[in-house]
Structures are given as structure tokens and as C-alpha cells.
User: What shape does this take?
Amino acid sequence: MTILMNKGTGIVTSVPSVAPDDYISLHVLKTKPALREKFGFKDEWVLPIEIIPIINIPEFGDKAAEKVCKDMKIVSQKEK
Assistant: This one.
């Protein structure tokens, strides 16, 4: 299997409003400057990103992932 850098062979989306893993990844990047530096992410690439609500779940609202992470006190992707 080969990845061609000049051709879109696969597209992956991130939905931090409804996917807890995506939400916590963004949250960690936004709150840890050392991690951004480690991976070469500029502040202006990460800090302005805001969650865009796309689905409203009655029990969780329109930012379900944020609510789940806060309610369950999830602070890292390493938590299972």
C-alpha cells in the first residue's frame, strides 16, 4: 500500500462537536503550547479553531463531545 502525497487517496474529517476523541485532541492542542511546538503547529493554526455545532442531541446539546468530556472529566486521549 502506498500513500501518494500529490493525490488525495483518503480524506479524514474531524468532528470535535460530536466525537469526544476529536474534541479532546483539539482541547489538548489548544491548552498545551509545548505540544504544539513539539509537532511544529503554529499558534495561529490551532488557537482560532472553534467547535462548529452540526448535530443537536437532546440529552447532550449541540456540543455533545465537549459535554461528555467535561461530565466524565476526560482530559487526555490516553484515557479509555
Residues 20-71 form one domain. The chain has a mean pLDDT of 89.
